[in-house]
Design a protein that fits this description.
Blueprint lengths: L37 E9 L2 E9 L8 E12 L6 H7 L1 E2 L3 E5 L3 H15 L14 E4 L14 H9 L17 E2 L2 E2 L1 E9 L2 E10 L7 E2 L2 E2 L1 H8 L9 E8 L5 H9 L1 H7 L9 E8 L4 E2 L18 H21 L3 E2 L5 E2 L2 H9 L1
Parallel strand pairs: 5-6, 13-14
Antiparallel strand pairs: 1-2, 2-5, 3-4, 3-14, 3-15, 7-8, 9-10, 10-13, 11-12, 16-17
Helix pairs in contact: 2-3, 6-7
Family: Belongs to the peptidase S58 family.
Protein name: D-Aminopeptidase S58
GO molecular function: aminopeptidase activity
Length: about 350
């Protein structure tokens, strides 16, 4: 058991959400501050079923016909995502991004394929097949993951609900997720740097209680003492999606996605053996046409020597998104009497 500890500084600011870094924050402090990006959730919360779907749309058009430049970084590959191989090869994504639990990846991939075919009947016939893009974390502590409750209709609902207003915490794919022994889930944030906007959305399901660094404060010992949980090896995961309106090519987006790891590390993660830590970055500055007779975009990319502000914005927005997921988390009761408490409740107790 972890030793008991308390927070000595009983400042009222402990109950305010920490603000990461000094870069300007976008108007919504969300990934949707990147123009054109929308997010939708479908939440399943009924007894032992505590799970859901979150969908990120890079633009409102036909993503298969107007592909989006993208690249991913796998910090630790303990994961079951679909679509990363083709993104790595071609440097584009051609569906919205779907987030869910581990056992629902296949159902959402099929839903994405069906949606793409409905919009583009030539797929798989006159045209090539479509590359679904689904990421996952294991919500099996709170959710009866074996029930495989998530179906294609839940993807459709999340897609239809996509808007610029992003709910955070125990919603959508984040409903059953845990972080640092408390409630995790969906978090989002944005920063403005170098004249561009960088936004992040995370599916936070990682971290052991003793390792938490919260807005620069070392809370791990106090949190572990309050929870009195046995400290076990890292078994969680995190998916980090970074969007920007900066004109970057796929190689540069790969470099940007890597910097999500800097924001993740600041919260106390060491990308543990049993953790699937994956970041994907995409740009909305231009699209790549599917049809060869449509002209390719002539885009002047950001110079390599001017990427540092974007790197900083990616790290800050990812860290802020993780903090936001924790701060917005609510206590959830799930399968077999399992509970994950809200961090804010525990902070109030620690300050008492």
């Amino acid at each position: 058991m972890a030793p008991s500890a308390r927070i000595e500084h009983k400042s009222s600011t402990m109950m305010d959400i920490p603000v990461i870094g000094t870069l300007p924050v976008g108007p919504r402090n969300a990934i949707t501050d990147v123009a054109g990006v929308t997010v939708g959730h479908c939440t399943l919360a009924d007894g032992a079923c505590q799970t859901g779907v979150t969908v990120i749309r890079p633009h409102a058009g036909n993503v298969y016909r107007e592909k989006v430049p993208a690249a991913a970084t796998v910090l630790n590959g303990f994961g079951k995502s679909i679509g990363l191989v083709q993104v790595d090869e071609l440097g584009v994504m051609e569906t919205p991004i779907a987030l869910t639990n581990t056992f629902s990846v296949g159902a959402l991939a099929q839903a994405q394929i069906r949606a793409a075919i409905a919009e583009n009947p030539e797929i798989g016939r006159a045209w090539p097949t479509v590359n679904p893009l689904v990421f996952e974390c294991n919500d099996g502590y709170l959710n009866d993951i074996q029930a495989m409750a998530v179906q294609g209709m839940h993807y459709d609902s999340a897609l239809a609900a996509a808007s610029v207003d992003v709910a955070q915490g125990a919603v959508g794919a984040g409903r059953g997720m845990s972080s640092f022994g408390v409630k995790g889930g969906i978090g989002t944030a944005s920063r403005i740097a170098g004249g561009y906007t960088v936004g992040a959305l995370v599916l936070s399901n990682f971290g052991t209680p003793d390792s938490l660094i919260y807005g620069g404060r070392l809370l791990g010992a106090a949190l572990a003492g309050q929870l009195r949980q046995e400290i076990v090896p890292e078994k969680g995961s995190i998916i980090m999606i970074v969007a920007t309106d900066a004109p970057l090519d796929a190689r540069q987006l790969g470099r940007l996605s890597l910097r999500a790891g800097a924001g993740l590390a600041r919260t106390g993660s060491v990308f543990g053996h049993g953790s699937g830590d994956i970041a994907l970055a995409f740009s909305t500055a231009y699209t790549v046409p599917h049809l060869a007779d449509v002209p390719m975009p002539a885009v002047q990319m950001v110079h390599e020597t001017r990427l540092d502000p974007l790197f900083r914005a990616a790290a800050d927005s990812v860290e802020q998104a993780i903090v936001n997921a924790l701060w917005h988390g609510e206590t959830v009761h799930g399968r077999d009497g399992h509970t994950r408490r809200a961090l804010r409740e525990l902070l109030q107790e620690l300050m008492a």
